[in-house]
């Protein structure tokens, strides 16, 4: 009886430790994403769904914040505030500007799949209305 109790207790502790380790790995991945995104301002270098919309984004810079908000800055003034979320395991970035935002900013809404990245740029894709859309951001 003592052996069975010991085995059950050991399994419960082992499962609990694995969950704690996973949470730690998830937190580390999230911290890395937050650090990369919030360290500096970003500009759009490519926005293309078969049509090149990059020029619409030229006046904008984006400041991602650790509280998961993002400022769209145009001509040194914040034009709109949105929300963002990064998922290191799914390799996605989600952005959401309010419906009242400039139509250019609304193009950024949705879940973007990270295709390639490093600390100073990120290339993402999303299918919008049946069109593959490419978005690239670069740190200033």
Characteristic terms for this protein:
alpha+beta, 3 helices, 140 residues, eight-stranded antiparallel β-sheet, Lipocalin
What can you see in these coordinates?
With 140 residues, the chain is an alpha+beta fold. The protein has one domain: Lipocalin (Beta Barrel). 32% of the residues lie in helices and 42% in strands. The protein has helices at 2-38, 54-57, 103-106, and strands at residues 42-48, 60-64, 69-74, 77-87, 92-96, 110-117, 121-128, 131-139. Strands 1-8-7-6-5-4-3-2 form an 8-stranded antiparallel sheet. The radius of gyration is 20 Å and the shape is globular.
Query: What can be said about the biggest beta sheet?
Result: 8 strands, antiparallel
CATH topology term: Lipocalin
Number of strands: 8
Distance between the termini: 66 Å
Uncertain residue segments: 1-14
Strand order of the largest sheet: 1-8-7-6-5-4-3-2
Q: Total domains, how many?
A: 1
Q: At CATH's second level, what is the architecture?
A: Beta Barrel
What's the quick description here?
It contains 3 helices and 8 strands. The chain has 140 residues and is of the alpha+beta class.
Secondary structure layout:
Blueprint: H1 2-38, E1 42-48, H2 54-57, E2 60-64, E3 69-74, E4 77-87, E5 92-96, H3 103-106, E6 110-117, E7 121-128, E8 131-139
Antiparallel strand pairs: 1-8, 2-3, 3-4, 4-5, 5-6, 6-7, 7-8
